Amino acid sequence: MSARYLMGIDVGTQSAKVVIFRTDGEVMCSAQQPLRALEIPQPNRAEHPDDDLWHSVQQACRAAMTRFHQFGGQDHQLLAAGLCVIRCCRVLMRQDGELAWPVINWMDVRLNQPYQPEPEYGEVRWVTTTSGYITHRLTGQARDTSANYIGCWPMNDARQTWDDNKMASCHVRREQLFDVVRPGEMLGEVTSTAARASGLPLGLPIIATAHDKAVEALGAGALAQGEALISLGTYIGAMVHGDAQPHASEHFWPFQAALPGHFLYECMGVRRGMWTVSWFRDQFGAAALQDAQDTGVDIETLLGAEASLVPAGSDGLITLHDWAAPAEAPWRKGAIIGFDGRHTRAHLFRSLLEGIVFTMKNHLDPMMQALDRPLTQLVISGGGANSDLFMQLFADIFGVPARRNAMRSSAAIGCALNAGMALGVWQSYQEGVAALVKTGETFLPNARHHALYQQLNQQVYQQLHRALDPLLKRLSPLVEA
Q1: Terminus-to-terminus CA distance in the chain, angstroms?
Q2: How many CA atoms lie within 13 A of 295 on its CB side?
Q3: What gap in Å lies between CA 240 and CA 127, rounded to an integer?
Q4: Looking at the predicted structure, is the pLDDT value of residue 437 above 90?
């Protein structure tokens, strides 16, 4: 039998990634297309410029298919593509399928409220998600996954369908919404127009997944009872799988999982999480860049190597990650405290990473306690998992083993899993996970470092908001026009 292949299309905040897998789990080829920088037309607004999401999908798909053919792949061997696109965004479409307005990103304050028609939007026929929009571009179908409607949408998560009783409060009518299918079900087939634009085979089945973090959780193989996924992206999230929709909790939210019939429990994360690391590199890394070039390594590797020589706790330098304030506390700002004459760029870099891990621990631990699940292992996904230092910090601060997989981009794997199950490639998701998820290194906690981090967290980090919020509340009206 000739080889068979599955495609994962994963569109995040910063890039579109396409990976083509053999059904035995080996990666045949991949391609990635960076997205353009978000446009910030005014404070607390964030939009994707022009039609950037669709353009990036076209270019990434075309590059991946070119490599697929170069390596001997034939169109009929490509069984299906799973589609995963950024969650918590809003797309306004005209009747002809074109954008009525640029895609509104999840960092935009308008996403904290139900849809509000504005005169500048013009004629809006459809109100949908990013996955609905890209599905329509690829297949011509007004169809979307039920599992990417998070926030102000009239979705019944238990039944995975629209809730007529919520339409009015969400300011939408049923005829403005796409039909929905469940993860692992067919969205449609690639049209001739989309085939010409993207290079994808005409008629290729496009399969529904879920929102991006849920697809990452599936693709990371984070399915065990005490296992939690931490996804290192522009938004850093932590989540665990469950088989029921629990009652509401102040410590987490239940969402539809990419694993059909299951839920994903997710705690609060770090907004602009890995963005903060890139911000530090770009704003303060000029001298490090020359040093990196002189030693023949990339700048992230150099900064990580320097920071690994800094003692645990960064010699008292503490970073509070509020570069993007939460909706309930819009006055909050990021803060770095504890400077003295010992501190270097390496201390700053390590402190940024430690602050991310402290924040995630202080969100994840209460969720696991509310679920009555002792945390036994972390699975770390995303590009940040390439850093040995970052991996060790997760193990040391949480006090449990931290594992990374051989392929860091687990959302693409989750897409392929949903696609393969839709086509009957495997008998169960567990069988698919065993085929596609290749585990990598596991980092064990250092007991001495863990003890120090526990003290820093309890005595300092957990007290920072209480200490700084009054000052930042007074600062905000003085500097925010």
Answers
A1: 66
A2: 14
A3: 30
A4: yes
**CB-based contact 331:303 (threshold 8 Å):** no
Task: Please report, as a single letter, which amino acid is at residue 397.
Answer: I
Q: Please tell me the distance from the alpha carbon of residue 153 to that of residue 470, in angstroms, as a whole number.
A: 34
Yes or no: say if 284 and 188 are a contact pair by the CB < 8 Å rule: no
**What is the identity of the amino acid at 443?**
F
For the purposes of burial, counting CB atoms within 10 Å of the CB of 159, is it exposed (0-12), middle (13-18) or buried (19 or more)? exposed
Helix (H, G, I), strand (E, B) or coil at 187: strand
Q: Cβ contacts of residue 273 below 8 Å, gap of 6+? A: 232, 233, 234, 235, 236, 321, 356
Residues sharing a CB contact under 8 Å with residue 139, sequence separation 6 or more, in sequence order: 187, 188, 189, 190, 191, 194, 206
Prediction pTM value: 0.86
DSSP 191-209: -HHHHHHH-PPTT-EEEE-
Cβ of 92: how many Cβ atoms within 10 Å?
23
Rg (CA), the chain: 22
Q: Cα–Cα distance between 307 and 326 in angstroms, integer? A: 29
Percent of all residues in the chain with a pLDDT value above 70, rounded to a whole number: 99
Q: What is the dihedral of CA 343, 322, 232, 220, to 10 degrees?
A: 130
Rounded distance, CA 431 to CA 437, Å?
Answer: 10
239-243, 295-299, 458-462: least confident range:
295-299
Given a cut of 70, whether residue 430 has pLDDT beyond it is: yes
Tell me: the pLDDT tens digits for 200-214?
999 999 999 999 889
Q: How far apart are CA 300 and CA 302, in angstroms?
A: 5
- Helix (H) / strand (E) containing 132: helix 130-139
User: Quick check: 351 and 318 in contact, CB under 8 A?
Assistant: yes
Query: CA–CA distance from 284 to each of 303, 323, 338, 350 (Å)?
Result: 11, 16, 19, 14
Residues, the chain, total?
481
Q: Extract the tokens encoding 398.
A: 């949480």
**Structure tokens that stand for 130 in this block:** 């990013």
Whether 397 contacts 457, CB under 8 Å:
yes
Judging by beta carbons within 10 Å of its beta carbon (0-12, 13-18, 19+), is residue 260 exposed, middle or buried? middle
Q: Which two tokens stand for residue 341?
A: 């004459």
